[in-house]
Amino acid sequence: MGPVGKVIFPNQENRGTHMNVSGVALTKHAPNKENAIKLMAFPFQRGRGGDVCSEECRISCKTGVLWSALQYSWGSFKEDSLSLAAVADNRAAAIKLADEVK
Q1: DSSP label at residue 79
Q2: How does pLDDT run across 45-93, given as a tens digit for each residue?
Q3: Taking Cα atoms as reference points, which of 76, 77, 59 lies closest to residue 68?
């Protein structure tokens, strides 16, 4: 982020800022399970080239992942607490709406 950039967290007066959720899965018959698990853990390892959340300016929801100095400069914010179950309940309607916009 350049010197003229400014981070704005929307919806601070009501529901809070939307939080993206990223995930990864390991299939049952993965041919190289041990290395796959190492790869899945890599973004969260400190001091070994990890810390992907900090490097990509993402704020991790995982406890214990340290923020970078840049992330601290953004200040605190209120997170949207909408559960993933509620998001999933509305998935079909969201897809239908997105298809209408095409």
Answers
A1: B
A2: 665 545 566 666 677 766 777 777 888 888 889 999 888 899 899 999 9
A3: 59
Closest Cα partner for 77 from 34, 26, 25, 19?
19
* Tokens of residue 22, six digits: 């990223």
CB-based contact 50:57 (threshold 8 Å)? no
Query: C-alpha angle with apex 80: 67 to 52, nearest 5 degrees?
Result: 30
CB neighbours of residue 82 within 10 Å: 13
Q: Could you give the CA distance from residue 80 to residue 101 in angstroms, rounded to a whole number?
A: 25
Amino acid 6 reads K
